[in-house]
Amino acid sequence: MQPSPEIFDLFAVPAHPLPVDGGQGHGVRAGDLVLSPGRDAATAAWLNPVLARLAAQLDHEQPRSLRIAMPIPSRDLRWVIDGWSATRHEPDAQPCRDLDVLRATARLLHAHLAAAVTTAPSGLAARDDRWVRAEQATFGTEPPLGILGSDLAAEWVVTDLGPDQLVHGDLANNVLLDTSGLPVVIDVAPYWRPALWAEAVVVLDAVLWLGADLGVLGEWTAGARRQAMLRAALFRLLSDAEPDVPRYRALLSAPVS
């Protein structure tokens, strides 16, 4: 998928796109911007101003510890045009695959988001996609636990996972490292859920897809952490287009130390 000539023109970049690493794998670089497809205009209308302010704030911190890709509006001040949005390109940044860095990034990011956004944005309620439906089912009063099997379903209990706040629900594949080694967060997937759940999703994704050591799941076998991990797995199983159910079951049932 390539942007139309109008998209390049409205974002004031040359129509010579190059592929980029990281994120959802569909973005292209044009000039000093990364253009990404499939964006929801209603979500960007409330989320991008939050991210732009926070990105600017973080870039002025000394010492810097975290960065967010700066969202850039079009020349006519739109955040999304025909599904395409733009963020500032970070030259020579590389995808982060280190789980320790990802977890530290998640905690820093969510601390900043909690301070920046203190009440649930009304725009969150307007989203309706398979990821939102999966998240809502996962946190419903009667989650569809049968997909995990009877043994894992029996573990599910209502537990306090911490306060709801604005979180990035898809962080593991959306952190770059800039040339100085600082994490740069991209493609924020917003949810109003506990930060512990969002961190569990990071850990689960890293073990499943990034080669992280299975032993890290030993930290997620009891109490609120186990409940967060079960909900992370349910979220992924319900939102994946073709979920590998046996793999998730085996992972959550495997003995770890």
Explain this structure:
The protein is α+β, with helices and mostly antiparallel strands. The chain has helices at residues 5-10, 41-59, 99-116, 130-138, 150-155, 195-209, 223-239, 245-253; strands at residues 18-19, 28-30, 33-36, 67-68, 71-72, 85-88, 94-95, 164-168, 175-177, 183-185, 190-194. The chain contains 8 helices and 11 strands. The mean pLDDT is 92. This is Aminoglycoside phosphotransferase.
Short key terms for the protein model shown above:
alpha+beta, Aminoglycoside 3'-phosphotransferase, Chain: A, domain 2, five-stranded antiparallel beta sheet, 8 helices
The span between the termini is 44 Å
Text of the CATH class of the largest domain:
Alpha Beta
Secondary structure category: alpha+beta
Shape: globular
Tell me the number of helical segments per DSSP (H or I, 4 or more residues long). 8
Strand order of the largest sheet: 1-2-3-6-5
Q: Tell me the count of domains.
A: 2
CATH topology of the largest domain: Aminoglycoside 3'-phosphotransferase, Chain: A, domain 2
Largest sheet: 5 strands, antiparallel
Helical percentage: 25-40%
N to C succession of SSEs: HEEEHEEEEHHHEEEEHHH
Percent of residues in beta strands: 5-15%
What's the total count of β strands? 11
Q: What is the second-level CATH architecture of the largest domain? A: Alpha-Beta Complex
Low-confidence runs? none
Q: Evaluate the radius of gyration.
A: 19 Å
What's the rounded overall pLDDT mean? Answer: 92
Concise summary:
This is Aminoglycoside phosphotransferase. With about 260 residues, the protein is α+β, with helices and mostly antiparallel strands.
